[in-house]
Amino acid sequence: MGALRILIADDHDLMRRGLKSLIEAHAGWEIVAEAHTGAEAAAKAEELKPDIAILDISMPELNGLEAARRIRKISPRTEILILSVHYSDRLIRDILEAGVRGYVVKSDSDRDLVIAIEALANHKPFLTPQATEVMLSGLSGARGASPADPDALKERLTSREREIVQLLSEGKSSKEAASVLGISIKTAETHRANIMRKLGIHSVSELVRYAVRNQIVEA
Amino acid sequence: MATPSTDAAENQARKSADARPPRILIVDDHEALRRGLKAAISNAGLQVCGEAANGKEAIERTIELKPDLIILDLSMPVMGGFDAAREILKKAPAVKVVVFTMHDSQQVRDETAKIGVHALAVKSEPLANLLDTIQTVLGA
Question: Which of A64, A114, A212, B53 would you label with B137, given CA atoms 20 to 30 Å apart?
């Protein structure tokens, strides 16, 4: 049986270094690529088709969740493990809907991370121990907005619109966002207008607050 | 009364102490990040003498291990970095404290300055910045 081929993506050098050290300490596990943005992770996943992609949720230009959605389409056999700083019920729902089966919080132990990788290598899911209660409370039941989750009541953003929310929240102009995404400025501005309308917001500062609340960008 | 052999022994001890690599305590609740920091710091010729996963452990390890410098995260469970820094600087005033955080705001900088922390480094910046900061603080 060949080595377990793993891609790691995190914009923090030290996190990648720590993950690399942990993974390479295991016989039969191999880092095939590193990435420091979601876009780079998706590109490398398409090229290398790793067995597992470990993605930080908060990365510039394209966050981990959006990268996961892309990777699921371009390399469906790649299992994905999302890492985040903070636990979030909302994030659990989003990642499961995206087809991601692994989720670990960064403050979880190395042991949980290893167990997660082993589970995904066998195509079994692993969620942080903190997620247990969410699962038990019927996550697989009716999905929909809860009164405590007003953002979910808003018309859902498309994948492209979420990418633009991230870029604008990072301080990029419509022109810069268009350049990053390879679309026209007019198209970027149309997306921007649709985003503002769907979310019922009127300023970039409101957009940033929305992005932070929904973990599209890191606070 | 000092003798030539005592003086020589003391000089040797002083040289050995000066020659030994500085001892660093790493404090962060993310184990993978502590692992990465440990590797980076060791590669830079410094010695990691211990680790802690929250502010309370940081205080205990400082008293126990007497590090030269502490790399201290801010957002941690049980006790956060600001509270830990205050206690550490009271109990071990000779130790140097470098806050290492993802939160780069004026508010954080003001608070760390008020507490008397020696430097602040931001996690999103290149690793070389942290290593330079550590060397600068140790050399000061």
Answer: B53
